[in-house]
Amino acid sequence: MSKLTFKTSIDFVYGKPKIMVPGVRRIVANNPSSFTFKGTNTYIVGQGNDVAVIDPGPKDDYHYSAIMAATVSKQITHIFVTHTHLDHVDGLKSLAEATGATICGCSHSMCHGNFDNSSMVYNVSSDVQVFPTIQLYHGSQVNGSDWSLTAIFTPGHAPDHLCFELKGTGILFSGDHVMGWSTSLIAPPEGHMGDYFASLEMLARRNDVVYYPGHGGQIEQPKRLVKAYILHRKVREKIILAAVQNGCCTITDIVTHTYKRHDPNLTKAVLLTVQAHIEHLSQQKLVNIDCPVTKNSRIVASKVAR
Ligand SMILES: [Zn+2]
Prior knowledge:
Blueprint: E1 18-21, E2 24-28, E3 41-45, E4 50-54, H1 61-70, E5 75-80, H2 86-89, H3 92-99, E6 102-105, H4 108-112, E7 134-135, E8 141-143, E9 148-153, E10 162-166, E11 171-175, H5 193-204, E12 210-213, E13 219-220, H6 222-245, H7 251-258, H8 267-283, E14 287-289, E15 299-301
Parallel strand pairs: 4-5, 5-6, 6-7, 11-12
Antiparallel strand pairs: 1-2, 2-3, 3-4, 8-9, 9-10, 10-11, 12-13, 14-15
Bound molecules: zinc ion.
């Protein structure tokens, strides 16, 4: 099993903007959990009169007031959305209405159609009602007076996930695609392991200097971490394939045999992560699984994989 080293330190005070670099401030929302770490990061970009907000965060009066106080002498002209999980967009409506800002993101329904979110493991399922004013695609660029953000399409954690490059700085806002405190949760039906691998491979070919993620502290030498995450998932997938070849015949069975020491509070997340790997193995024709896929669907290794 590949060992990952996580960065679990983050220097912050809830509600207090922290200057990351001139022109980028971060406010951490007070919504800590097993899935959000200390809380959702909201970033304010720009030093001029017009600023952009990346991820308004949860619906929370204290967090909303903190964003408004941090921009009191400025105009929030744009609100960018990395993806439409509620811990990132539940506060969008009030902020957009108060500021008249243009909403920039990838519409959930534009990506993969509508989802039944019933299997989502966390109560941060998607807000499919988010319709951006500006629909962003891979490479779309939006400019303010002293900032320019480029959308980098990175599905996997969510089908509508975007990272944002801050032009001329080496900074990439990495959302929940790459975080330093934990690997991303890839939970079907929204999570897609094949897309996640492809999005990681794409970032590994880039030369960003630092990532500012949706949860947790900044990530230095991000390329090294991205490569470690790719390796970690490949190793994990090999272990899962080996478990199937050795007779594990359901997702439940695989979890019992390969995730022996997981936190019992995260069992549903672990089951869905294994499901995502099995779906990816199935797409590669390495296993066959009965549909519809559930935690007790029968899985067999295909002849190619034996
Ligand atoms: Zn999140």
